[in-house]
Amino acid sequence: KKKLSSEREREETKLTLGSSCLQNRTKLKTMSLMFASPVVTPTVGSFTFSSRRRSNYIVMSAVRSNSTSLCPVLTKFQKDCATPTPYLREVANAIANDMRAGLAVDGGGDLEMILTYVDALPSGNEEGLFYALDLGGTNFRVRSVQLGGREERVVATESEQISIPHKLMVGTSEELFGFIATKLASFVAKEKPGRFRLEQGKKREIGFTFSFPVKQTSIDSGTLIKWTKGFNVSGMEGKNVVACLNEAMEARGLDMRVSALVNDGVGTLAGARYWDEDVMVGVILGTGTNACYVEQKHAIPKLQSKSSSGITIINTEWGGFSKILPWTIFDREMDEKSLNPGEHLYEKMISGMYLGEIVRRVLLQMCETTDLFGQFVPVKLSTPFALRTEHLCKIQEDNTDDLQIVGSVLYDNLELEATNLEARRRVVELCDTVVKRGGRLAGAGVVALLEKIEEDTKRMSSGKRTVVAMDGALYEKYPQYREYMQDVLVELLGHKLASYVAIKHTKDVSGLGAALLAATNSIY
Predict the structure, then answer these.
(1) How far apart are CA 489 and CA 498, in angstroms?
(2) Cβ of 12: how many Cβ atoms within 10 Å?
(3) Could you tell me the CA-to-CA distances from 399 to 19, 299, 372 in Å, in that order?
């Protein structure tokens, strides 16, 4: 069992545990945060049962609790996951301390605080034809953008998504980048001359979003640290990824060069900044998570002899934070079975990939130790990642009297048959516990970024608006998660400072941001 720190124990003794997380939450009337994000109502099919063979179930011989009104597993889990305001203040302070340590020296803290060399942000004056390439999964996306300056802004844009054959994901660097360059050449060849115009004598320039761990050495160069997300391309570790793409394009006669190497968080910040000059933070909350922000160069000791004037974007890689997190035995077990045990612990608590899996693991133990779900444990309930975050959202959005949608989700995805209303209520409580912890911890991270910016700029205290650009399916499609995250900003910043913060949902702007950074870092 997890041994909690003395600090966590002291906080937890202050908690009063309720048996239900379904009560309406009191809204803060004086809150003046500006949130621009959609509310999504899930579409759920009808709830029907069909007979299942008993071979799909495991009969439990262990002694179970015979009272459905008591669920000690859930009660303890709720206690271990509690995130009261004083505790979140400690988390925000710890993240901020790690940020400072990472800015002082590489490896100084959990957060890598990577220099992106993005020292010029979009102003709205950019003109010309630029491109963006986004490589970060089983598909890559290419986009062309015709910019018309401050008056016309984005004149025309075209994009295409291309699937990468699995054999190239585990092949050679020449094969992978050769495939990408070939598709890029085909994309350019289909351009309509009336919509896209390249000035005579100029080379095409592209912003390359490469969402894998990279040690960046300049705005247009970086070496691969390691492959993730199912990629294992040989001959790439330690190589300049930009050089690999440039060579492949040149070999195929494509007159194009990479002007900016960025990740999706930096692209989101830059794309949002193009439309709103008060954007200072970019956060991705989707399957994974990351954050970047605008930092003053004089506050970065590890820049050493480099220019100390002006601003730059720092890629925090905040998913690697690991201090004073409310770890439970279920988090520990999930981490041990993950592809990167002991790493990215913050990400495993707040990002979309893991929330459903944590719920499944707790639900399995609830099913094994009580008769809340009957006398059988479905085999599917023991299958890792059988429950996804989108399922949690459907469960929490269920407003039917008998929680019919909850029963449907449990049956369709975990083969839990004929659950009674009491059991469904406990499942809703469990989902709320996991999502509340994740959203509130994410909120503490956002506060840490805002307070680091405030430390050097005094933006909020002087009444200046500060915008956080948010992207990712988790933030977009999970309203309860958004609410929990947003509430923490008021709790930790106070009403006055929080009133100067705007959180904007900026969907799919990272491609535009990459093209804009190619423009701001053009060789012409």
Answers:
(1) 6
(2) 16
(3) 19, 49, 21
CA dihedral 506, 508, 510, 515 (to 10 degrees): -120
- Confidence tier at 225 by pLDDT (50, 70, 90): confident
Q: Which two tokens stand for residue 186?
A: 């085909």
* C-alpha separations of 30 from 39, 113, 446, 496 in Å: 21, 35, 21, 10
Euclidean distance between the first and the last CA atom of the chain, given in angstroms as a whole number? 61
Structure tokens at 243: 């050089």
Cα separation, 137 vs 133, whole angstroms: 12
Options 3.40.47.10, 3.90.150.10, 3.30.420.40, 2.60.40.1180; CATH of 117-262: 3.30.420.40
| Phi and psi angles of residue 205, each rounded to the nearest 5 degrees, phi first | -120, 145
In our burial notation (b when 16+ CB lie closer than 10 A, e otherwise), range 61-90 reads eeeeeeeeeebebbeebbebbbbeeebbee
pLDDT digits (tens, 9 = 90+) for 375-415: 788 888 999 999 999 999 999 999 999 999 999 999 999 88
Would you kindly state where each structural domain of the chain is located, as residue ranges? Answer: 69-115+276-506, 117-262
Give the DSSP letter of residue 370: B
pLDDT at position 235: 83
Quick: pLDDT tens for 280-326.
Answer: 999 999 988 999 999 999 999 998 756 666 999 999 999 999 999 99
pLDDT band at 212 (very low <50, low <70, confident <90, very high): confident
Q: Residue 370 is encoded by which pair of tokens?
A: 């009580």
| CA-closest candidate to residue 290, choices 391, 396, 214, 389 | 214
- The pLDDT of residue 8: 42
Phi, psi torsion values for 406, nearest 5 degrees: -60, -50
Residue 96: count of CB within 10 angstroms of its CB: 20
Helix (H), strand (E), coil (C) string for 28-41: CCCCCCEEECCCCC
pLDDT reported for residue 70: 63
Q: Are 207 and 130 in contact (CB under 8 A)?
A: yes
- If you average pLDDT over residues 481-493, what whole number do you get? 97
Nearest to 314 by CA among 295, 333, 331, 301: 295
**Which amino acids are annotated catalytic?**
229, 264
pTM of the model: 0.83
Residues whose CB falls within 8 Å of the CB of residue 404, separated by 6 or more in sequence, listed in order: 47, 398
What does CATH list as the number for 69-115+276-506?
3.40.367.20
User: What is the greatest pairwise CA distance in the chain?
Assistant: 80
Asked whether 500 and 466 are in contact (CB, 8 A), the reply is yes
Q: Helices 479-498 & 421-457, crossing angle to 10 degrees?
A: 40
Q: Can you name the residues that pair with 283 across neighbouring β-strands?
A: 291, 470
Residues 6+ apart with CB under 8 A from 1: 329
Residue type, 81: C
